[in-house]
Amino acid sequence: MLRVYKDNKQYPRKVIDDEGELYFCALDDDMIEIDCSFDRMKKHMNESISINVRYNIDKEKVPFVQLKSILYLYFEIRDSQISVIASVELVDKVRDDKWGLNDFLDELKKQLKYYNSIKINYYELGEEAFIWLEKFLPSSYDLEKNVISFAEEVNELLESTKMGLGRYLLEKRHLVSEKIFCKEILTPLFRHMGFEGIIFNHGVREFGKDYILSEMTKIGKIRYCGVQVKAGNIEGGVNSQIDNIIYQIKDAFEMPFSLKDENKQCFISELYIIISGRFTSNAKEKIRYKIPKGFYGAVHFLEKEDIENLIVKYLSV
Fold first, then answer.
1. Given 3-state DSSP classes, what are the helix, strand and coil percentages for the chain, each rounded to the nearest 5?
2. Which residues contact 296 (CB under 8 A, 6 or more apart)?
3. Which long-range contacts (CB under 8 A, 24 or more apart) does 92-100 make?
4. Which of 169, 232, 254, 288 is the most exposed place for a label (fewest CB within 10 A)?
5. Rounded to the nearest 10 degrees, how much is the dihedral formed by the CA atoms of 237, 241, 247, 251?
6. 234, containing H or E segment
7. Where do runs of H (alpha helix) occur along the chain?
8. Pairing status of strand 222-230 against strand 299-302
9. Residue 310: CA count within 13 A, CB half-sphere
């Protein structure tokens, strides 16, 4: 159990738990900051914490999540409310680009309207510019899952900000890695396009559907769209990827999926084949020719230029 010992003026002098003494500093009259490992902090939370405390977590010892752009990770408990805070260095975000710190911060504030759970806690725009992004955790939570979700949202927010400023459309790394193409480009794009549900299945029993997108139709029914993602170009020549794509198209329409916490089986009504390169050598025509005729009007193709046009349309807030 976490214990704080104070002097006769009620100033904290020592902080200990079952493992020994902890390094700390007093932030204000009722808040202390502790340097601590994630696992050690989690033990405190499991035993309940009766004081206001901020944990400065060694991010190198949080192996279950890719923190990427996050410089420091904090957990703050104030009046029994728990929040997670990411400290992001801003100088690194603008060093090689044409805009300044104020431009980046202004665009980030605009992009935040698509991330309702994240708010700005604090920022500085001096020589060592940084920003703290904060998310409050629900009363019932899985700490690891919330940290993973928060880190993904922060990284996605930063990529959305760059795209909103015109930092890049599609770059070389998006042409070689499906995962990077999805995480940096497609997920933020789909969020900004206003889909009500975005499920990312890449590599996990996807059955031809890397994404499942849902939206409400004008008659009040939910429509599900599948997205199949490929990095680079798709060619229609001999020994091409065409046969594999056709097999995945059939799988995408014929194999049902279940939504989280629901037993009902659902099917997609449309499928988008999205690639980060270009369709070459009559690839689209060959795919259309070989798929069942009933799929013709429900299969759509988007390539590099199409995605860049959507980025300009939806991410230039």
1. 35, 30, 35
2. 288
3. 93/69, 93/158, 93/161, 93/162, 97/165, 97/167, 99/165
4. 254
5. -140
6. strand 234-235
7. 38-46, 91-94, 101-111, 143-164, 172-176, 178-180, 187-193, 242-254, 283-290, 304-315
8. unpaired
9. 19
**Maximum Cα–Cα distance for the chain, whole Å?**
84
> What's phi and psi for 304, nearest 5 deg?
-50, -55
Q: What token pair was written down for 30?
A: 């009722």
Spatial distance between the Cα atoms of 204 and 181, rounded to a whole number of angstroms: 17
d(CA 6, CA 26): 11
Residue-wise DSSP of 277-314 = S-EETTHHHHHHHHS-GGGGGGEEEE-HHHHHHHHHHH
What pTM was computed for the model?
A: 0.69
Beta bridge partners of 229: 274
- For tokens 């015109």, name the residue: 166
